[in-house]
Each structure stands twice: as C-alpha cells, then as structure tokens.
Amino acid sequence: MQAGNEIFERILAAPSGLVVLDCQDVHALIDQFRAIARHTGQAVYLWQPDTGLGSLRDAHVRVPDCQRLGNALRYMQQSMHFGVYFLLGLELPLSAMDGTLLRQLARAPKGHLRRVVLIDAPAALTEHLGDLATHIGSHDSQPRRLRLRDGRWLV
User: Fold this and answer.
1) Residue 49, CB half-sphere, CA atoms under 13 Å: how many?
2) In angstroms, rounded to a whole number, what is the distance separating the alpha carbons of residues 155 and 146?
3) What is the CATH number of domain 2-154?
4) How many of the other CB atoms lie within 10 Å of CB of 88?
C-alpha cells in the first residue's frame, strides 16, 4: 500500500497532465489505487477497452458513453473537476483524433488538477508523445539503504 501511495503522490506532482507509468504488477497496483480512492474519496477512474471508463472508488459506477477511447478522452478533457484517469490496454494504432486529444490533455490548463495516466503504454506511443508526458516507474524511486541487523546486511 505504501508503494501505491508514493506512486499516486508522484502522479499528482507531475508537471504534465499526461503521465506514462511503467508497471511491473498492473493488477496489484490498480488494487492499491482502488484502496486509495476509497480511503480518500478522490475521483479516480480506470478505462479499459472491454469495460470502458469506470470509477475505482465505486466499482459499479460506469461513466455513460465512454466505452470507446475517443469518447473517454473527450469526457476527461471537458471535465472541470479534479480527476485521475488511468488508461490500461491501449492498442496501436490510435486514431489521429485520439492522439490529438492525448496531446491536449498533456497541456491541460493549470486551473484544476487532472491527470491522465497511461499504464504500460506501447513504446511507439510513448516515443510519439516525447516530452509532453511525464514518465514514472512503479519501482521505488528512493534508493534502498542497507541496514545492519544481527550481523547481517538487510535492504
């Protein structure tokens, strides 16, 4: 849970509205984000190709007409409220409109906090987005400090 909180804080602190998250265990991390959303009451959403856009806080709540990626991206762009939107399972090629919407979301106005997080996005997409997106890894960003305990070094 601590790792999920640390990653969530790094997502919120990102300078760009678009974040690329490289993840080792996607389902465990999504479960941690779900727990954070339930605990804090924040608006956190997950989009997947088979289920569309839904709330992580309330598992049964789906955003209407957001099954397709383009509709979900337009919903994110038009929302005037705080929100963290995780996109999982993006497949290439994206339509020209979807690519444009992602670039616009990266340059979102500073007036309200909105983050769009691409989880394990295809390498070609991350290269295409370049510096527009902030890149974050799910591994701990702090170097591990060795500790001496009972004559053994522990991480």
Assistant:
1) 6
2) 5
3) 3.40.50
4) 20
Mean pLDDT is lowest, of 14-28, 51-65, 96-110, 129-143, for: 129-143
In DSSP notation, 61-92 reads -B-TT-SSHHHHHHHHHH--S-EEEEEE---S
Sign for the pseudo-dihedral over CA of 120, 9, 116, 125: negative
Beta strands in 5-142 (DSSP E): 18-22, 44-48, 52-55, 83-88, 114-119, 134-137
Q: Which amino acid is at 134?
A: T
- Pair 91, 122: CB distance under 8 Å: yes
pTM of the shown model: 0.86
Tokens, residue 117: 């997080």
- Quick one: which H or E segment has residue 154? strand 152-154
> For residue range 28-61, what is the model confidence (pLDDT) as tens digits?
999 999 999 999 999 999 999 999 999 999 988 9
> What is the residue type of 25?
D
Q: Are 77 and 105 in contact, with CB atoms under 8 Å apart?
A: yes
Helix (H, G, I), strand (E, B) or coil at 26: helix
The pair phi, psi for residue 115, each rounded to 5°, is -125, 135
Check: CB of residue 83 under 8 Å from CB of residue 57: no
